[in-house]
Amino acid sequence: SSSSSSSSWALASPSFVVARAGRSASVPFLPKPENLKGFVGEEQEFDPLGFSDTFDMKWLREAELKHGRVCMLATVGFAAQQYITFPGFEPTPDALQGGRSPG
Question: Is-contact 68 59, C-beta < 8 A?
């Protein structure tokens, strides 16, 4: 019982707080990213690869939205190929069975 109270005291001690200053809240062994102020993710200080130090944050936000939309379209296309065939094309075989061996 005394070890648990001493360990919780150690986490609340001023030396622990000082050691955490300047460190990321979500990845404590990395420095706190400074360029996230005013953007989503600022409160968790999550930028483990340091992209916010290298690239403009507005460009990163735009790229993330664009790539997310492309992934959504790709997912719809993967599912739709089972049911939609354009005129002049042969229907595709069941792509969901593509990973299985014929036998």
Answer: no
